[in-house]
Amino acid sequence: MAFTDWNQIKSLGKGGQGEVFLVEQPTTGPQHVDRFRVALQKVARDHYADAQIPNSQALIDLIREVVPVRRGALKKLRPPEAQINATATLERMKREVAALQGIKHPALAKILEENLAERWFVMEFCSGGALNKDLARTKGLVLRTLQRLRPIVEATAILHARNLVHRDIKPKNIFVKENGDLVLGLRARIRA
After folding, report:
1. Helices (H), the chain
2. Which helix (DSSP H) or strand (DSSP E) does residue 25 occupy?
3. Residues 6+ apart with CB under 8 A from 144
């Protein structure tokens, strides 16, 4: 199964329906080598007549080290034969993706790429992990806790206004961004 140009780094967790992986998307790749080589040769020709750029791959490698890569959380369903009700599981994933793509709110996880035919999607990665591992940050600070959770409540209200119900709001499904902001991972269903 190919995930376009997302590279799997490590597993972030498993559940009954599938697994979530930390993935990275390269900011440079083999297709950039020739463009860099031409640009560097032009710079060398225009500014450093005696300089030669024998291997622009070394520069690409250096750029990869210093330029941040785009990270995501890849949610991949188990193969249909490994699930009791694969059709229902895929339908839940489709609803989840549709809900996340249809609502823009800073406290809702963003879909970066999806391929539902292959049973996966990539959403933004929150480097702080799940809130259940970050509870000590605001322990005893009631006002700060309420301020952190307010965007989650606002996002939930938007979901409800669109007849979507989050099926599993809990600290394990709320994620912490690098700056400390909270993001709700979504498991939505249409309200009956």
Report:
1. 30-47, 56-66, 86-102, 142-161
2. strand 18-25
3. 138
pLDDT in tens, the chain (192 residues): 556 678 888 988 887 778 888 998 866 656 566 666 666 666 666 555 554 555 555 555 556 555 657 889 898 888 777 767 778 888 888 887 887 788 889 999 888 888 888 889 898 899 888 898 888 888 889 999 999 999 999 999 998 898 888 878 899 889 999 888 999 986 544 443
Nearest to 102 by CA among 146, 174, 159, 150: 159
Residue 129 Ramachandran class (φ > 0 left, ψ -120 to 50 alpha, else beta) = left
- The torsion angles phi and psi of 112, rounded to 5 degrees, stand at -95, -35
Q: Where are the domains of the chain?
A: 7-25+69-190, 30-66
Supply the DSSP symbol for 130: B
d(CA 100, CA 168): 15
| CA–CA separation, 125 and 12 (whole Å) | 11
Domain 7-25+69-190: give its CATH superfamily: Transferase(Phosphotransferase) domain 1 (1.10.510.10)
CA distance from start to end of the chain: 35
